[in-house]
Specification:
The chain has 433 residues and is an alpha/beta fold. The chain has 3 domains: 250 residues, 3-Layer(aba) Sandwich (Rossmann fold); 77 residues, Tyrosyl-Transfer RNA Synthetase, CATH 1.10.240; 76 residues, RNA-binding S4 domain (Structural Genomics Hypothetical 15.5 Kd Protein In mrcA-pckA Intergenic Region, Chain A). The chain is 39% helix and 12% strand. The strands form 3 sheets. The chain has a 6-stranded mixed beta sheet with strand order 1-6-5-2-3-4, with helices on both faces. It is globular, with a radius of gyration of 24 Å.
């Protein structure tokens, strides 16, 4: 067919001692209903939790033995359809980090090509097409954000962009790839059959998405692929294509989808029910302390390493612990403590528990770069530059939960966009572009 060998795309993983790989030998990759009581080994129980399904459905020990035999290439793909990652993405990132810690090679696929099509999984209509420029912009910060969870050391993480092998795919090879699947197979995919029966258009380029995503597994010679429960079709397609191109088919490991802040639908930026990894500590804390009680245990299970049996009995205490734990994870303990104090101050000030009602201050009229004391005065929280300087000197001014002591420090509009400013205990504002 004229395809490049997968070896052209996938360098051999570094040699890592078997003992490190064997850490996962009896838990990662095991279906929950086949696992015995692991309570005597908290480390095993922690790594095993948060796994919904492993396929193919073989004897329980098979994947464990496979992982113990040698370092493996563990694939996770993320399409940069939006510029920010959210907590829902970290479910798979955290599992990928566990594989890293066990001595395996994490391979993070940034779908800079497939993002232009958009994964049609679970969609009631076709996704809007993204331009290469939009995708490139969205991808810029992905690695930095993923680094909040993953070990970015090059010998433990391989970052690949699927545009490297898909951007210049010749038409004859694209047609050959299409010839590996049938329309019947594609209509069996979640969403396609429903749309077809309801007369909602299903476009041919959407059929191409599972094949392209599956070919990523061929290109990087994946041994195990991680994905949400909605990705089973795509991961199975990767197995089929690996067999077609003479590779050993990957194992698939499905992980739960994190419910959004509404407690009903999966977390999604388009639905507005998300917590972004780049959100300031106060915003993150305020969102998380309002997670519906019914899904709080799921958040603890999928997003933390805490002992689920030791959680507080009081629902409100559980919510606050969840918020403080995750803000600490992504911003540090000091920022988490300050975010909690700021959130409580908002309630005491009578503004409301809804963070969205903090007054917004536009950055547009301000001249930048600007000294911090000028920004404080321009926000309206202080009446004069001298008052702003005095409040800063007295340690009463916080930006994103961090005490500010340098009033003369120059800031740009980019430094301030989305930031929350607090003066004293009860005066807040959020800067908007």
């Amino acid at each position: 067919m004229g395809w490049k060998s997968p070896r052209d795309f996938a360098p051999e993983s570094a040699k890592i001692g078997r003992n490190a790989a064997a850490i996962l030998s009896e838990n990662l990759g095991v279906n929950k209903d086949k696992i015995g009581n692991l309570s005597a080994n908290p480390g095993q129980a922690l790594r095993e939790r948060g796994i919904t399904e492993v396929f193919p459905d073989r004897e329980t020990a098979d994947l464990g033995q496979y992982l113990a035999a040698a370092p493996r290439r563990i694939k996770l793909g993320i399409d940069p359809t939006r510029p920010d990652l959210h907590l829902g993405h970290t479910v798979a990132l955290r599992k990928l980090r566990q594989f890293q810690d066990a001595g395996h090679k994490a391979v993070l696929i940034v779908g800079n090509f497939t993002a232009r099509i958009g994964d049609p999984t679970g969609k009631s209509e076709a996704r809007p097409r993204l331009s290469p420029e939009e995708v490139a912009f969205n991808a810029q910060t992905y690695l930095t954000q993923a680094g909040k969870v993953l070990d970015l050391c090059p010998d433990r993480l391989e970052v690949r962009y699927n545009g490297d092998w898909l951007d210049n795919l010749p038409l004859d090879q694209a047609l050959a790839l299409l010839a590996t699947a049938t329309v019947g197979q594609m209509l069996a995919k979640e969403g396609f059959a429903d749309r077809y029966e309801k007369g909602v258009p299903v476009y041919l380029h959407e059929f191409f998405y599972p094949l392209l995503q599956g070919y990523d597994s061929v290109a990087i010679a994946a041994d195990v692929e991680l994905g949400g429960t909605d990705q089973k079709f795509n991961i199975l397609m990767g197995r089929d294509l690996q067999l077609h191109f003479g590779q050993s088919p990957q194992f698939g490991m499905l992980l739960p989808l994190l419910p959004g802040l509404d407690g009903v639908q999966k977390m999604s930026k388009s639905l507005g029910n998300y917590v972004g990894l780049t959100e300031d500590p106060l915003t993150m804390y305020s969102k998380l302390e309002k997670v519906p009680d019914a899904v709080v245990p799921t958040y603890f299970e999928l997003l933390t390493d805490l002992d689920l049996a030791a959680l507080p009995a009081n629902p409100r205490d559980r919510q606050k612990l969840l918020a403080e734990t995750l803000v600490t994870e992504y911003h540090g303990a000091a920022a988490a403590q300050q975010a909690r104090q700021d959130a409580e101050a908002l309630v005491l000030s009578g503004q409301t528990e809804a963070l969205g009602e903090i007054p917004e201050v536009s950055l547009e009229p301000m001249a930048f770069p600007a000294p911090f004391f000028y920004v404080v005065k321009a926000s309206g929280l202080c009446k004069s530059n001298s008052e702003a300087q005095s409040q800063i000197a007295n340690g009463a001014v916080y930006l994103n939960g961090v005490k500010q002591t340098a009033g003369d420090r120059l800031l740009s509009a980019q430094d301030l966009a989305g930031a929350v400013l607090r003066v004293g205990k009860k005066k807040f504002c959020r800067f908007v572009p």
